[in-house]
Amino acid sequence: MRHTWLVLAVLVVVPIQVRADGLKVTLLNTLGQREQAPAWSHTAQFSPDGKLAVVAGALPAETAEGTITVWDLEQGKVKHDWKIPGFEVTGLGISADGKLAIVALGSLSKEGKQRGVITLWDLETTRKLRDLEDSDSITWAVAISPDKKHALAGARGELKLWSLATGKLVKSWKGHGNNEIWTVGFRNDSEAISAGDDNRLVFWDLDGKQLRAFNKHGALSYSLSEGGKALATLARDQTIKIWDLAGKEKRTLKKETHDNGVGTVALTPDGRRCLAVQQYTDPVTVGEASAITMWDADTGKELWSHRHPIKGLAPILLTADGKQALVGGGANAFSLWDLDKGRLLRTFGGHKGAITSVAVDERGSIFSASLDGTLKRWDADGRELFTYVGHSGPINAMALRRNGQVALTGSSDKTMKLWDAASGKELAVFKGHEGSVTCVALSPGGKLALSGSEDRTVKLWNAQTGRVLRTLRGHGDRVNAVAFSPTGGWVASAADDNTIRLWPLKKRDDVEPRVFEDHKRQVTCLAFSRDGKELLSGSQDQTIKVWDVAEGSVLRTLEGHKNWVTGLSFPRAKLAASAADDLTVRLWNPASGKELGRIDIGTQGEVGRCLAFAPDGSTLAVGTAGWVIFRYGLK
């Protein structure tokens, strides 16, 4: 049967080129994953060796597209990305060697007619091998046997077993009445497992004969300890039961706030501890919430628990020593946890909010800050190296010392934090603003810091101690941008009052701040030239102005953007870049005012929010509202 609805989409190798005045710009790679909603059902599945994962998601509703993404977990990078127009991924399974995937897809027509498709894929070649089923029944659970000889699926009380070699149906049998089946799997090559809405988890031989059943606990998720001596099941009422394989219930685990949700469960290899991801209704906000919790399976004692944003039937993969766990689901593709300390070690999938600031150090490492409250560091190939977590609110701004050793962040939590970029250690916390910190800067030597805020003030700080040296008052509205003059002597600020102010770095009672006024609307961003003689400003009036710093006059106005200018970078006298809400990045020669080229990032579905050149001007990083960062090469 032929299907034309599955289309392969390339994620990171799209060559976008711009040529103008001999300047060539090429998209080198994409950092992070684009914004998408997680699939309701099986959000992800891991290969048993922990090297590979397949993630299901959904693009915005108006596009009516599901997605499948294959991750190389060792590299922390996406290998392949598929789009599935008109379908939602309802079930996933990966073979033990990580080479095959079984994918269940479902759709619902306007007339209410269901369609379910089950397909088999080669994950190494990204080639669809065959369709196993195309029917009017949606399947929620699929699995591949350890020896890769069989595939199992469950839907509406019926279990189906296929031969993977031929694609033919080998056996089907009724196992849960007419109830929905939510989970299937294999204990080994000759035993299958299923659980459904009839409150039973059943072990079967491959002829459909029932071997044993665990009654009165309909499992959304189950887990066997190493050697299969203990079984954990998690039911729709969010209770977890620990069993021996003779069918004896040993213990019930439950958090009082967990109800009316879905979740997954995993036993450590020795069966002594139980990890669960559970979704529930928060009694305070009366909204959806989720938590990851560890119990002592022998005593029932809760060892630790954290709220964590997870959606769908999130898979859990424990390391062989039981010390760490990979958890999938929600905005983050995966998260890595230290099970002894109950500590989040790392997240995969990039930022989960608009990118607010980017910077590139001398080694080509890229730093990015986001409204998701995290600061991340990436290598030039797009691999996520570190995630720095510490703010209690969105990060609105970030600055990097030129050598990349120290980063400064400003947040809506009204604080700034100084980070050791190599270790992720928090070096200092700066407190003093009465509103959100909206912009930050570090002096060329890194000894001073500058910040602007919604409280209309600009503050100068000792970057080593976090002590306020001066508070600069004069703006009549929110401060949007601050900058140090590279040659010293002055600091600049821009605000929603349509003005730019130039302040003497050292306090002098006889020197008033100089006010630059020519923009018609809010001034959003600033960038000094390397010699400090010129200053670029971008505004909501859609223009960029080149200022003579000494005279305070406008040398020229750069026009071309069709919406707010959101970011500027000025690496050398004859090269600057600007981002705007018109879905473009534009390259300029500020000396002549000529536009050198335009990058239509809107063709990639994103709006630019910030940008930064590498110190040598060879690459340009652009952060977007859609969670990803584009890295371009310039020649």
Report on the structure:
The chain is mostly beta strands and 635 residues long. The protein has 2 domains: 37-348, YVTN repeat-like/Quinoprotein amine dehydrogenase (Methylamine Dehydrogenase, Chain H, 7 Propeller); 355-634, 7 Propeller (Methylamine Dehydrogenase, Chain H). 0% of the residues lie in helices and 57% in strands. Strands 1, 4, 5, 6, 7 and 8 form a 6-stranded antiparallel β-sheet that branches. Strand 50 and strand 51 (543-548) form a beta hairpin. It is elongated. The two termini are 48 Å apart.
Give a brief outline of the structure:
The chain is mainly beta and 635 residues long. The chain is built from no helices and 59 strands.
